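Q: Convert this sequence to structure tokens.
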Amino acid sequence: MEMHQIRYFLGVARTLNFTRAAEECHVSQPSLTRAIKLLEDELGGDLFRRERSQSHLTDLGQRMLPLLQQCYDTVEGAKSLATSIKKGEVATLRLALSRTIDLTLVLPFLSDLLRAMNGLELKFIRGTTAEIADLLKAGDADLALAGPMGEAWDRLESRTLFTEPFELLVPEGHRLAAQTSVTLDAVRDERMLIKTYCEMSEAIAARLSREGVSGANNHQVASERDLISLLENRMGVALAPKSTVIPGSLRRISVADLNIVRTIYVHSVAGRPRSASASTLLKQLLAADWQLERA
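A:
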């Protein structure tokens, strides 16, 4: 089945006239008739009842019409998209983000990018640092924002964006909610919500264990949304990066003796061609005054 056969069929189905359809398709009538006959042979039956001045769709033709129309529209849509991409009118930026990085950190940069590149399409991918490394290797992500990858790969380019401390998150009305700073001793008897997806979870667990805070009554949490919900429902307290966005129902408190920070990098692949959007975003991220924004 050839696309020109489908186009000719749709032309006759629309005009119900072989001569007029041939004119619209800019082809001779014998060529159009021959192409439709080959299509009928392939489909195993007549598509039209031919009359002198007007033709009509057969039952087979009526059943084939929506299917062949969909086929034609799909191919035309693909060709149009390919042309737009080739002209630079449409592009996709694939950004991988650690599960612990809030999207609001990069929204100002992305907003500027979308204003400058009207046809840009964004694709966001969440994962652990190991999953993000695999995405970069496979070419399924253009850039990534995450902590240290923790593996040796000579093509991985990691550039520091910012370093931030961890803070204690508690619900409003908690006994510590009015404090601006505490020590780990203050949370010794608290039920901790442990973020298993955090790149610093092992270091935090080890630190809590040394202080006698870690215990069997702690909860393990697998997402930021679950963490916020558990905190709001007074199911425990949590240690989270300073950049974590929290609702007004929660309070953040510095922990004087935790001594754990995390560094966030923008990761890319050396030697791999970058799109204009990826190059622009990379420059924006590296030029930003992150210390000022984190204040």
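The radius of gyration is 30 Å.
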